[in-house]
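Hey, quick one: can you model this chain's 3D structure?
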Amino acid sequence: MTPPRPPIEQAVTWLYTDDLEKLAPFYSDVLGLEMVLDQGKCRVFRTAPGAYLGVCCMANRPLGTKGMMVTFLCEDVQAMYEALVARGVDTFEHPPQKLGDGSLIGTYFRDPQGYHLQIQQFLDARWRHPVRPVADAG
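Sure thing. Here's the predicted structure for all 138 residues.
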């Protein structure tokens, strides 16, 4: 009998760069992500509870941007778009709009390394939104 798989409690998506001093501030200052770990050559940012994005400057790592995309889910894509434009993001492919079969709203942009990013909101009622933490009443 196969033992049960232990639960996956966290996830990190790694992006590689040859200019960490340009890429890391994009995620902290422009996107406003909290840096939770500075390893010198790598910096890890929290995107959501249990979810992280790491950016690293390491020799012989692929810098390819084709075939991958990081999607940030939010409840108000238009507000996020406007906030990012105000922070200097000028690489959007288009303003937020319905995408695919109309079951989501989103837009695409690039970070300074050229990685393909998306902000998106699912309109499909089957999508399980995260449970919001209850504010401390004390």
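One thing worth noting: The chain has two helices and eight strands.
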